[in-house]
Design goal:
single chain, alpha+beta, Multidrug-efflux Transporter Regulator, Chain: A, Domain 2
């Protein structure tokens, strides 16, 4: 059995590469000549980030991804997603 250790730096590099790939294939901020929506619904977030409903819920519960709940629907600011992708919650 071959064992590989994952370092914090290696994991950080992977995260940045993953988000860069997501950005490359993202239909936002411009899609077919339309401006990006300021707020996205949960299903749009899951599709954009390629994550499950459970993962999205974990991001909400941990406070990693801010949201607004209106009439039972969750909405996420597109600029918050960009901020997270560019360096984390605190803008690192």
């Amino acid at each position: 059995m071959n064992v590989e250790l994952i370092t914090r730096n290696g994991l950080e590099k992977f995260r940045k590469e993953l988000f860069e790939e997501i950005r490359k294939h993202s239909p936002y901020p411009r899609s077919h000549g339309h401006e990006a929506r300021a707020w996205l619904k949960s299903y749009q977030m899951r599709k954009l980030l390629g994550i499950s409903a459970g993962t999205l819920q974990n991001l909400r519960v941990k406070g990693t991804l801010p949201y607004k709940k209106i009439s039972g629907l969750m909405y996420y600011k597109y600029e918050d997603i960009q901020r997270l992708m560019e360096g984390g919650e605190d803008g690192e």
